[in-house]
Design goal:
Shape: globular
Strand content: 35-45%
Order of helices and strands: HHHEEEE
Strand order of the largest sheet: 1-2-3-4
Largest sheet: 4 strands, antiparallel
Number of strands: 4
Radius of gyration: 14 Å
Distance between the termini: 19 Å
Number of helices: 3
Length: 116
C-alpha cells in the first residue's frame, strides 16, 4: 500500500510474486493496476482495518499459505470509508510477495464490523 499511496506503482509491481509474471510483463501488470484505479481512485492514504489467513492453490496444484490485509483509504475519487483495498501476500523464495491486490467498494448493505 505504501508504494500505491506514493504513486510508485512500478515499485508495487516489483513486490509481486513471480507467478504473476507468467501471464503479464512488468509493464502490463503496472497498466493493470493503474486501470483498477478507475474503479475507486488511487489511494492517498491507508489504514489497516483487518487481516486474515488462508491459502492459495496454484495452477500447478501446490498450495501456499497466505495472509490478506484490508485497508481503508481516502482516494482520488472518494473519502475514507467508501473504498477499501485488499492485499494478499504469500511466501516466495526470497521473502514475501503480493499474490493478489484489488479495490473493494460497498455496493449495498452494511460494512462489516471490522471495516467501520
Amino acid at each position: 500500500m505504501e508504494h500505491l499511496v506514493a504513486d510508485r506503482v512500478s515499485d508495487a509491481v516489483g513486490e509481486m510474486e513471480p507467478e504473476m509474471f507468467h501471464w503479464a510483463t512488468h509493464q502490463q501488470a503496472e497498466a493493470g493496476i493503474r486501470k483498477l484505479f478507475d474503479y475507486c481512485g488511487r489511494p492517498l492514504d491507508s489504514e489497516l482495518k483487518h487481516d486474515e489467513v488462508g491459502f492459495k492453490v496454484y495452477l500447478s496444484g501446490h498450495k501456499n499459505p497466505t495472509r490478506k490485509f484490508y485497508y481503508a483509504a481516502r482516494t482520488t475519487q472518494y473519502p475514507k470509508g467508501v473504498c477499501f483495498f485488499s492485499v494478499e501476500v504469500a511466501p516466495i523464495p526470497n521473502g514475501i510477495g503480493v499474490t493478489t491486490f484489488g479495490p473493494l467498494k460497498l455496493q449495498s448493505g452494511e460494512l462489516p464490523q471490522w471495516a467501520r
